[in-house]
């Protein structure tokens, strides 16, 4: 701010050298300044003082505008690229559901969530009923059920079809209406799965198959 004020004062002095010199500096009739009809006898209110003050304010405003313009023009390319990446990332989040694939069980399409943070496979009671699978008592769920508080049972011998290949697996039954089926880490490891987020696919190396992650517009029931 001090640097801007010094520059403004220098510009003011240069302009005053070229400005018209007033013969009667105490006359209020020389300049009709913004509707002022009477400037009085105060030195600060005389026409030449008013002109000097306005020149100084004008120079300060001009310099502030130039400083803001330069800061806006000199934007870091890295910052611009980062903004674009953030915008693209937000659009991608809106378009793609988090790690969902489509498989089949009992001849019905099943929407499966890929979850590396969950060890066993999970299936909801609603999906279990729709598929017509038999549920084993919660007492026979084993130690894996201890890590899943919502587990109410277990289903054995589920035939899941991934692409053109079919595998046999089991799953814990959970009382979760938001879930259809969850592929846990045990199954992902046994099938040597590879999550390719760049290509947007889940590769089953043990089956020589790959399935694309579902977009919001492609989800079953959408």
From TrEMBL:
Q: Which GO terms fall under molecular function for this chain's record?
A: aspartic-type endopeptidase activity
Q: Which residue stretches does the UniProt record annotate as biased composition, category Basic and acidic residues? A: 80-93
Which biological process annotations from GO are given for this protein?
proteolysis
Record-linked InterPro entries: Peptidase_aspartic_DDI1-type, Peptidase_aspartic_dom_sf
- What Gene3D superfamilies is this protein classified in? Acid Proteases
Q: Which residues form the Aspartic peptidase DDI1-type domain?
A: 99-196
Judging by the UniProt lineage, the source's domain of life is Eukaryota
Q: Where is this region: Disordered?
A: 66-93
Put simply, this protein is called NRIP2 protein
Species of origin: Erythrocercus mccallii
Q: What is the lineage of its organism?
A: Eukaryota, Metazoa, Chordata, Craniata, Vertebrata
**Per UniProt, what is the name of the gene that codes for the protein in this document?**
Nrip2
